[in-house]
Amino acid sequence: MKYLSTRNKSLNLDFGNIFLRGLAPDGGLFLPKEIKKFSEEELKKLSNLSYIDLGVEIISNFCGPILDRVKIKKLLDKAYSNFNTKDVVAIKKIDNINLLELYHGPTLAFKDIALQAIGLIYEALDLNKKKNKYYRCHFGRHRFCGYCCP
Asked: Catalytic site residue 44?
């Protein structure tokens, strides 16, 4: 997958090059050059997958070929192995309302869904060794700040 900038359509970077940047060099946002459009048949198949397998199918469209399906599957299996439900998230039905429970991770907060995987992506991309640098990510909301990466 190649990425361009909202301010420079000729930019041509892969996932490994954009992962650490946040913003494009020109201050624009990174966008994938192409976004896969799923057919109805594909959507039906996706709807029957586990959370992790669904994640593999979707994420692989944005990380390839830097991270292949096998590596993404291992990464997600590890990321969600310490969640207290096998399905990672749960849907509870109360009358006519479906509630998505996002608190089954180690900190019991919705942020676990993304942040448990982000540190493992750094590790999988081996960014620390390649650039001889060490990164520490700070993710905060209001008065809370937590480290997610080595």
From this structure: no
